[in-house]
Amino acid sequence: MSAPRIVVVGDALLDRDVSGTSTRLSPDAPVPVVDVDAVFASPGGAGLAALLCAEPPSVGAGPTAVAVTLLAPAADDAAGRELAGSLGEVALERLGHEGGTRTKTRVRSSGQTLVRVDEGGPGTPVGVTTEQVAAVLAGADAVLVSDYGGGVTRDPAVRAALEDHARTGVVVWDPHPRGGAPVPGCTLVTPNAAEAAATLEGSGPGSPRELAGVLRRHWGARAVAVTAGADGAYLATTTGTALVPAAPVQNTDPCGAGDRFASAAALALGGGADVTAAVETAVEAAGQWVAAGGAATYRTRRAAGVHARPALHPGAERLPREVQELLGEVRGRGGTVVATGGCFDVLHAGHIASLDAARRLGDALVVLLNSDDSVRRLKGPGRPVVGEADRARVLGALRSVDAVVLFDEDDPRAALNLLRPDVWVKGGDYTPEQLPEAVDVRGWGGRVTVLPYLSGRSTTAILQRAGRER
After folding, report:
1. Residues forming beta bridges with residue 407, ordered by sequence position
2. Which of 259, 345, 363, 422 does the annotation list as catalytic?
3. How far is CA 155 from CA 11, 63, 130, 401, in A?
4. At what angle do helices 156-166 and 130-137 cross, to 10 degrees?
């Protein structure tokens, strides 16, 4: 796909995370005391959506380079200048702003938010003309309306320009309960289930599937995707409504998943995808976002810089040369390395499902494969059925697998410490804390994710059936 030009229209704000630890209560009130370790600030609201448009997700065949413009009210105060200065390559087109910059400060301890303090506002646009907005929208391959209830989508001049653009252009609208209704003709509207239900409160159906169809007609949109968390999204078009399912991920922090969903959909549509393909891409991207730790992790990593990735162990020269080159290429562009491991003897549908799900969590998947000797110690003298060379070759031919590394130990910790992936994925019904390698992974700043097995599939069951048939 060619590099699209995306215009994000909406309410920008400044997000701050005050991160620390809390081990005691205040002597003057029964509230926790947080010893601050760091403060991270980053654009929020439509500002976050614009940043995500400038950083395409690693799913589908989407664009790798995007020109992004943010059209939003921006105050001329210290927080506003910090917001504008942190947009990176995103171009800011300022609208008049009422009041101080809206700022959301979250005080967090051990990854949990204790309290959020909101300042500034109201942030409504002032002195806006339709001609001013239309000039920014002109030539956009896709327009993303990121509504955060500050008043941009209720402004008559902004609405008139957006309605005119929606007649012939691509408009993706991410609504907010306090915002204006999507203008008629939107290509795609992306409410979550709660927002969809609130729109038709007291007069509409209850299920996300039904809501999607009713809202498409209610808003006069070409398509509506009601996001339903771990289930995926219900996409309603002129031909009906269907579920676009999500891959299972461990839900750590879903904050910002709606922005990732809407931005991924806008990028795909701006690059020429049809609405179904765009929503499929958006569902995958939102799943990756949640699995990677959500908005708080994104802000922390962004504050540290894209190159602040887990480093290779000094003994990494023991890894195959092609694996070293893969790691250098992925991390050189700020990507995410995912690893998983196992015997993978007699490859079956359960293996494929797990590998596909793992690959969706990042930009490259490395499989740590037990050697023949390791499999024999773990499974018994009759295993493996397929030798290590053939198992590695078959795995390497899968579209979800970028590299395979053999290891001879009974567990993958030694190989993991050479590879140091950003995400370590295991299949099963246990928790990350039950994995002995979890301490190692977290020690270099990585994450552990457990994906459930595909029910009814196992190598042992296949071999038992084959034995009975003989």
Report:
1. 370
2. 259
3. 12, 32, 10, 49
4. 40
- For the question of residue 17 being annotated catalytic, the response is no
Retrieve residue 393's tokens: 């070759």
pLDDT tens string 166-192: 999 999 999 999 999 999 999 999 999
The Cα–Cα gap between 124 and 96 comes to 8
Could you tell me the pTM of the whole model? 0.67
Task: Specify the pLDDT at position 108.
Answer: 86
DSSP of 390-455: HHHHHHHTSTT-SEEEEE-SSSSHHHHHHH--SEEEEESSS-GGG-TTHHHHHHTT-EEEEEPPPT
Domains and CATH numbers, the chain: 5-303 (3.40.1190.20), 311-469 (3.40.50.620)
Cα R_g (the chain), whole angstroms:
24
Q: Give the Cα separation of 447 and 439 in Å (integer).
A: 10
What phi, psi does 73 have (nearest 5°)?
-60, 140
What 3-state class would DSSP assign to 339? strand
Q: Residue 32 corresponds to which tokens in the numbers above? A: 């926790």
- In angstroms, the CA 145 to CA 231 distance is 24
DSSP letter string, 186-249 = -SEE--BHHHHHHHTTTTS-SSHHHHHHHHHHHHT-S-EEEE-GGGEEEEEETTEEEEEEPPP-
pLDDT confidence of residue 179 = 95
Distance CA 414, CA 423 (A): 16
Sequence-separated (6 or more) residues with CB below 8 Å from residue 275: 187, 188, 222, 223, 235, 237, 269
Length of the chain measured in residues: 470
- Eight-state DSSP code of residue 28: T
